User: What shape does this take?
Amino acid sequence: MTQQDNKVEWAPIATPILTELLGKVRFNEQGLISAIAQDESRNVLMLAWMNREALAETLTTGRVCYYSRSRKTLWRKGESSGQVQHLLAAALDCDLDCLLLTVRQKGVACHTGRRSCFYNALTPTGLIELTEPDITPDALYGAKTSS
Amino acid sequence: MTQQDNKVEWAPIATPILTELLGKVRFNEQGLISAIAQDESRNVLMLAWMNREALAETLTTGRVCYYSRSRKTLWRKGESSGQVQHLLAAALDCDLDCLLLTVRQKGVACHTGRRSCFYNALTPTGLIELTEPDITPDALYGAKTSS
Assistant: This one.
């Protein structure tokens, strides 16, 4: 990766404010909330899920941590690939059941090696791939397959 | 509302391409897919859900139609408030289980009268409202309460 990891300083949200904020979030019946990640160019990168622990860690460390529904574990974005997300801002929607994260994305967000996960355009002629990978999954993960 | 309703021409996706596309979408166990709406300024407006019927209608008409999980019915955005969303583009993510819609939003997307639903910032001092409503819910809905 040639892109520099411009780490940003996140002012950690401390207890008891963190506890107060987490108490306001409306997690769903599985204890999860959807989180949209948007970069500084306002490019929407991905949507993933957080449980209470993942959101608490994200707001405390400034490093975005999701919850992997398939692996049923915390998913520290970039822990395998190095493609970390530094948190710049976070906002809840009107129903308090969805998060919009503004992030500084190192490299690519998508496990396919694309900057954004949203590359499959629905068009009158069918599904069209809008972008090519910037990097191969092999280069991202070595012999591994998941981020 | 002073904002002009700049209707856009959406090239309808016809059968059988529509059927082919809908067959690729990974709806969840409730038959739903999450859909993020982003406007032409790349402002993320809202997240809502679609079932197969809502997505088919959206791709056919170019007017965004969601599925209301609370009302258990199709939710043609703006049918009560007039704040319609004209579809400009739609893309699926890498897992084919989330949609990113680019829309021309008439007026405001949020039922609170704000342009975007994501106005509750999570900050070290607590939840802070980032924006004020552009219009009151009463002006949007009259005596009604939901869009």
